[in-house]
């Protein structure tokens, strides 16, 4: 498995291992995911070299971020090893199962984890693959013995079309991945395709009618996630009662990087981390923080993800980030994209200020860490974004 440290790849590796396969793989650097895999007996090599591929390999699975010329993929082809990209491999793993797939712009991870936890608590023993670490499982994977399979399915590059769900849960649809989907209409068209491939669809018109109990997680958006999850479970398993499902939801503790409390900073501020990387998710996270901490100053350290997303949703980012009391913006996490002078972190900070906010560009992780260390007990701080800004927060806590 090439790109083993990815959140989806690492879950699939655990699935293969649970099925009795010998699994090995590589990634560019050590991460919480690679350490978790090693603890589970999976061979992880740091660095991607041709000789990482065993000569007796029967399948090579690669992350969608891995290019054709990658030395391990080249070696695999030389050995005649069949290769599959991650979403296709996961789609094949779910064939013949009672599949619940969760899709949507926001809330996929939390909703998937809620579904898995409800089914587990109800004795349905599902297999679950989710895009974050679930504290109750200490993993992004749960091995089940039943034929129920729950997956978080990503819309990027239409990857979710690898699935043919029995139940499709659609949390919401709002234009994203603008580097691939050039218009909102293209984005919605892909969702229409996955709906056509599904036996039953649970969207807001269905789950909006659900009642949910008081949750441990803050915010109206998490109540919507819970409604979507509950409706999805009831669609697949109509024998389950509201009492059983509500008891599970009441005790759900959230997932890694979703309004996750990290600890108390040196001068007394509380630090949270959140994966929010779209204007709507930022907006809702700040609103939830205001609701939970009405007497505190909300300070956000935002790490923009991709120049294309920053550029295409620029006005939305400027508006949502202005709702924090203070925002610090790190340089854009470019990933696979070239520099775009129209979508820099300094330009975004200036736009936030024009929207009535208080924002400043910062140089990177080191400055972020030092600023976090100065925040007192009147502050609730958030490291926020799809990159690895959480590392700066963790450094500030030590």
Structural class: alpha/beta
Which sheet architecture does the biggest sheet show? 6 strands, mixed
Integer-rounded radius of gyration: 21 Å
Overall pLDDT metric: 96
Approximate shape: globular
| Spatial strand order of the main sheet | 7-6-8-5-9-10
Quote the distance from N terminus to C terminus: 33 Å
The CATH superfamily of the largest domain bears the name Mur-like, catalytic domain
Helix content: 25-40%
How many helical stretches? 15
- Regions with little confidence, pLDDT below 50 for 5+ residues: none
Query: Which CATH top level class of the largest domain fits?
Result: Alpha Beta
Beta content: 15-25%
What are the salient characteristics of this protein?
single chain; 398 residues; alpha/beta; Rossmann fold; UDP-N-acetylmuramoyl-L-alanine:D-glutamate ligase; Protein-Tyrosine Phosphatase, Chain A; 6-stranded mixed beta sheet; 15 helices; 37% helix
What does this molecule look like?
With 398 residues, the protein is of the alpha/beta class. The protein folds into 3 domains: 7-87, 3-Layer(aba) Sandwich (Rossmann fold); 94-250, UDP-N-acetylmuramoyl-L-alanine:D-glutamate ligase; 260-397, Alpha-Beta Complex (Protein-Tyrosine Phosphatase, Chain A), CATH 3.90.190. It is 37% helix and 18% strand. It has helices at residues 7-18, 32-39, 71-79, 86-93, 108-121, 184-196, 204-207, 220-236, 242-250, 279-292, 307-312, 314-321, 345-354, 365-372, 390-397, and strands at residues 24-27, 43-46, 60-62, 83-85, 98-103, 127-134, 139-142, 148-152, 167-170, 200-202, 260-264, 270-274, 297-302, 326-329, 359-361, 379-384. The chain has a 6-stranded mixed beta sheet, with helices on both faces. Strands 11-12-16-13-14-15 form a 6-stranded mixed beta sheet, sandwiched between helices. Helix 5 (108-121) packs across helix 8 and helix 12 (314-321) crosses helix 13. The radius of gyration is 21 Å and the shape is globular. The two termini are 33 Å apart. The relative contact order is 0.10. The mean pLDDT is 96.
